[in-house]
Amino acid sequence: MPELPEMETYRTILSNQIKGRVITEVEVNREKSINLEPPVFTGQVKGAMVTEIRRRAKHLIFQLNNGNVLLLHLMLGGRMYIGNENDSPDRTKQVIMSFGDRKLYFIGLRLGYLHLLTAAQLKDKLDDLGPEPLNPNLTVDTFKQRLSRKKGTLKSVLIDQKFIAGIGNCYSDEICWTARLQPERKVFELNSQQVNELFLAIQPVLTRGIEYGGYMENPAYREDRKTGGYNQHLLVYDREGEPCRRCGTTIQKIEIASRKSFACPECQK
């Protein structure tokens, strides 16, 4: 599932390619992927200009010049591709938005969605999300206060979107490895120094993920050579059986609340 770095990578690419362009056609091939009847949805989207693309947690927000927004959550298996009639992935497209001869394909929106919302509806939809981990207003003191109210494992807390927004399976493991903490540790077991280390690991891990284009392998357009680059730089996630990059011990795969997780049994305590 795309997480903060993957969605930030999409945001940058789409801002460069479709920001300021008018949506000339809309094709809906799966009604459950949108929130309105297809004629209503297409009628309000077609002819609108995308004036801005921003990210909140794992969502992308397409701001339209008519005041409405398109809220995208790719969920598990979702992706996007920018192409044209002659450059199109051989996959079922749930929604297609055209910008003249350029097309934005929404693929794999079985669990994900593309909803047309008013500004007020958008606020309500995102209101219960936690703070953005890359926001400078998220201080270590704020983090400690929020963490002190949580129970459960580090893994479950880090991926809780109400606690902090945008972190999922992959980057929670990367953060725990960087902080030298086991993802199955209970949060109440952490001392003040360990909480500090956990906080200090979050921003560098996510920034590094963005720098390398995230871990999702599918390119966003034909010449895309950046998306998925983080796969070559993973610290611990999906590295079962490989040597730890820090101490050389074999990385183990564990299961925490039915979620796969990866950790070093030696240098993560």
UniProtKB/TrEMBL annotation:
Domain of life: Bacteria
PANTHER family: FORMAMIDOPYRIMIDINE-DNA GLYCOSYLASE
Catalysed conversion reaction: 2'-deoxyribonucleotide-(2'-deoxyribose 5'-phosphate)-2'-deoxyribonucleotide-DNA = a 3'-end 2'-deoxyribonucleotide-(2,3-dehydro-2,3-deoxyribose 5'-phosphate)-DNA + a 5'-end 5'-phospho-2'-deoxyribonucleoside-DNA + H(+); Hydrolysis of DNA containing ring-opened 7-methylguanine residues, releasing 2,6-diamino-4-hydroxy-5-(N-methyl)formamidopyrimidine
PROSITE patterns the UniProt entry points to: FPG_CAT, ZF_FPG_2
Required cofactor(s): Zn(2+)
Domain Formamidopyrimidine-DNA glycosylase catalytic per the UniProt entry, residue ranges: 2-106
Keywords: DNA damage, DNA repair, DNA-binding, Glycosidase, Hydrolase, Lyase, Metal-binding, Multifunctional enzyme, Zinc, Zinc-finger
Domain FPG-type stretches: 235-269
EC number: 3.2.2.23, 4.2.99.18
Protein's recorded name: Formamidopyrimidine-DNA glycosylase
InterPro entries for the chain: FPG_cat, FPG_Glyclase, FPG_N, H2TH_FPG, Ribosomal_uS13-like_H2TH, Znf_DNA_glyclase/AP_lyase, Znf_FPG/IleRS
Family: Belongs to the FPG family.
Keyword Flavoprotein: no
Oligomeric form and interacting partners: Monomer.
Any GO molecular function: class I DNA-(apurinic or apyrimidinic site) endonuclease activity
Keyword Ribosomal protein among record annotations: no
